[in-house]
């Protein structure tokens, strides 16, 4: 009896991988280019000049944690896009994106993230991974609860998008979403802005998925109820941590490291794009909110990228006063001291 209880305890504490693509997913396009293998534990998506391929979850969900292990297209993957994302349907859809933009051999992948709510996105952040995502499987996770969305790579947070409805920013919380994955050609924009095209002599391109796991609230469209409503089993694997998950001190340190070392684009620091003013959540994210201060992007990262944007603007003939330049450091003493010399140089130009 004691042994049985111990086994049950381990089962409840450890992640339970769904691990059967036959039961949990449906191929949506690509015909035989999507192949379920290894008894349902592995799914391969392929792309050739005729078509890509993709699949979706059989269930819809309203909040949860979603994990997928991926091994991306190796070698010359320029022009290809491999995806793992959540989405609802319709013109005013919600969406939470992981997209992996291929590159020429020897060049790193770009991890593109975005959040759509009520059909509006334009909240992109991009990263370069600190490992080769084509040599082995790595875990990519989305935590989605009413307070925030967390993007994780091998359980390391790379981005947090908080619920800022209080200041008028839409947040995806009312539409159930399915999990989607696909491999497709986007050589008009995916690699170096479309300058590098897909080399079809390398086709077929193949990416592998395994260990699809959901700890989530299953949504029933027929009854408009959620499995987390109380009358049914809670989340799929009875692990409720995601419902209130946020970044602890270790998580804030890790996301700071990722965003300082591996972030290559942040919409909240793109002064050229938002010349009339940044979206309201960008301003909010730079305010201290107790433990919230590092949850979206660090002030230091924003300062670096703001200065780069200003430098670029100056090369185009725009001028800025020293007070305008200093405002981009938030007038924080450490930032002002650190950027005193580059601000002086910029101001003299």
Automatic annotation (TrEMBL):
Contains at least one intrachain disulfide bond essential for its enzymatic activity. Gene3D superfamilies: 2.60.120.200. Coiled coil: none annotated. Belongs to the glycosyl hydrolase 16 family. Keywords: Apoplast, Cell wall, Cell wall biogenesis/degradation, Disulfide bond, Glycoprotein, Glycosidase, Hydrolase, Secreted, Signal, Transferase. Residues 15-209 form the GH16 domain. Its EC number is 2.4.1.207. This is Xyloglucan endotransglucosylase/hydrolase. It is found in: Secreted, Cell wall; Secreted, Extracellular space, Apoplast. Catalyzes xyloglucan endohydrolysis (XEH) and/or endotransglycosylation (XET). Cleaves and religates xyloglucan polymers, an essential constituent of the primary cell wall, and thereby participates in cell wall construction of growing tissues. Residues 1-18 form the signal peptide. SUPFAM superfamilies: Concanavalin A-like lectins/glucanases.
